[in-house]
Amino acid sequence: MERTTSDAIGKARLLLEIRKAGVTNLRILGVMEAVPRDLFVLENHVDHAHDDRALPIACGQTISQPSLVAAMTEALDVGDRGKVLEIGTGSGYQTAILAKLCRRVYTVERHRDLVVAAEARFAALRLHNITTRVGDGSLGWPAQAPFERIVVTAAAAVAPPALLDQLSVGGVMVIPIGPEGGDQMLCRIRRDKNGCHREDLLPVRFVPLIDGGMPADAG
Ligand code: SAH
């Protein structure tokens, strides 16, 4: 089959999977259709870019499963005026989805090589409302706080206190919580004037959020 035809079929099938996973928001479905996932995967995985599964990327990390990216985005309930903080840029796929839905995305990643590659993809897609930083995301981004929305794409043992501090009152954080390689739960934390309230959404499996200590390529 010709490449473009099989691509179109693969993409249509993927959108069906995303709907089956319970995502109904039309804006989010439209953006999932618009952002080319093949641009975010390694060259030797391009044939699987439209499969609904996580794939390996550089630095031993993974690009998340598309239906989960869509579900996390829906759970985050982003508006087009809000400022979003993302922890764990990885390939930049979730970042690109968010950038199409909100005013500005601040994204932190501990591997410089991943940030450099993600920035090239944002430029190719003409996404100019993303600010990147190499660093320990568990500390958040104090200079830009507070954030209306925070999404963490790596699993933490507990919600990092700095991130809870930097969530605005009325804000929402979506974060996988649980041990590395063990039972993790995708949680939504809402902050109101009385404090933070946690709600469990679904079981998930993410790479760990590394606390402190930067890798050699952090520069
Ligand atoms: N949303 C990404 C998923 C990346 S996987 C995508 O769809 O491609 C999670 C990422 O979190 C990895 O790239 C990992 O390096 C990063 N990470 C883990 N601990 C971190 C920390 N403390 N600070 C910043 N990034 C971290």
Question: How would you characterize the overall build of this protein?
Answer:
Helix content is about 30%, strand content about 25%. It is of the alpha/beta class and about 220 residues long. It has a single domain (about 1-205), classed as Rossmann fold. The radius of gyration is 16 Å and the shape is globular. It starts with a helix and ends in a 15-residue tail after the last strand. The model has no long low-confidence stretch (mean pLDDT about 95).
Can you summarize this structure?
This protein is α/β, with parallel strands linked by helices. It is 29% helix and 26% strand. The protein has six helices and nine strands; from the N terminus they run ααββαβαβαββαβββ.
Number of helices: 6
Helix content: 25-40%
- Mean model confidence by pLDDT: 94
Rg is 16 Å
Could you list some keywords that capture this structure?
alpha/beta, globular, two-stranded antiparallel ribbon, Rossmann fold, 219 residues, binds S-adenosyl-L-homocysteine, 9 strands, 29% helix
In terms of topology, how is this protein built?
Elements: H1 3-20, H2 26-34, E1 55-56, E2 62-63, H3 66-76, E3 83-87, H4 93-99, E4 104-109, H5 112-124, E5 130-134, E6 147-152, H6 161-165, E7 167-177, E8 184-192, E9 195-204
Parallel strand pairs: 3-4, 3-6, 4-5, 6-7
Antiparallel strand pairs: 1-2, 7-8, 8-9
Helix pairs in contact: 1-3
The protein binds S-adenosyl-L-homocysteine.
